Amino acid sequence: MANTATHTVEQTLSIIKPDAVGQNQIGNIIEYFEREGLCIAAAKMLHLSETQAKAFYAVHKDRPFYKELVEFMMSGPVLVMVLEGEDAIARNRQIMGATDPSKADAGTIRGDFATSIDRNAIHGSDSAKTAKEEIAFFFQPNEIFTRQ
Fold first, then answer.
1. Domain tally for the chain?
2. Tell me: the pLDDT tens digits for 49-108?
3. How far is residue 28 CA from its own chain's centroid?
């Protein structure tokens, strides 16, 4: 019997972080997604407030890096996007590369653009549940345009 693996069209959240925005890498990073078949269903440029940054990263509030992460995410504008495509969550995580850029493969966003584990250029949702929550944090349903 033939392999009938199905691929699910998903949406995931991606944030181009202040370090990559400040280095004028937005277009280069978007090219990685588009080249791998992910489409941008929504995008907006924001400068996160302290309230937004703390709320978005609340899952990390008890971790030693939380304060620095919040300050970093407030340090400059970010580009928040909804990416859409087949298996978008897993594919986005592959395209991003390892959180620690010293362990990220060349040809991944972090391997090519990140300068440290703290300034790692990009954020992406890690599961379907997280993606749904993170997308709703930044976007209203009428701001998201699907290609289906």
1. 1
2. 999 999 999 999 999 999 999 999 999 999 999 999 999 999 999 999 999 999 999 999
3. 14
> Which residue is catalytic, options 7, 47, 60, 123?
123
pTM above 0.85, yes or no: yes
CATH number at residue 28: 3.30.70.141
Domain that holds residue 81: 9-143
pLDDT tens-place string over residues 21-33: 999 999 999 999 9
End-to-end CA distance of the chain: 29
Tokens 């209203």, residue?
Answer: 140
123 labelled catalytic: yes
Q: Dig out the tokens for 62 from the structure.
A: 């008890």
